[in-house]
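To the structural biology subgroup,

Please find below the input and predicted structure for DUF3040 domain-containing protein, which we are adding to the shared reference set this quarter. The sequence is reproduced verbatim from the submission form. If anyone notices a discrepancy with their own records, reply to this email rather than editing the shared folder directly, so we keep one authoritative version.
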Amino acid sequence: MKLNDPFGRMARRREREYHSLCESLKKAGLTDRAKAEELRENLRKRTKKSLWFIMPAIVILALIFQTYAIYVLAFGALVVLWLTNTTQRGTEYLNRYIEEECGGDTTVPDEQIPADNAQQNGSDEEPRER
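Predicted structure (tokenized):
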């Protein structure tokens, strides 16, 4: 039992959201790993563009409506938080979709990590065994 979700309601909701996304992607014909990774990359790019638009707009609105600046900034912070949270959840769902439906791993396998990590990160420590 989790303290932040004692009855598992949020876990069930997240599972429904994921299955809904899977069905939508399958209906759209997105069963290829490369296309799913491209969708994930496009999601990241759209989020960055949106943030680059939203954040200056919020600051400009706060400067225009100085008497309501605290409310504009609070609303802007909520919008930014919502956007980043939604994007993060969507990326997690896409990673899971790639792993489960497209048959691929979204993390870098241990074989691809160089054995000598000490030279790459600039430290004098010996590489640790995994």
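Summary notes: Residues 33-64 form the longest helix (32 residues). Confidence is low (pLDDT under 50) at residues 108-121.

Regards,
Lab coordination
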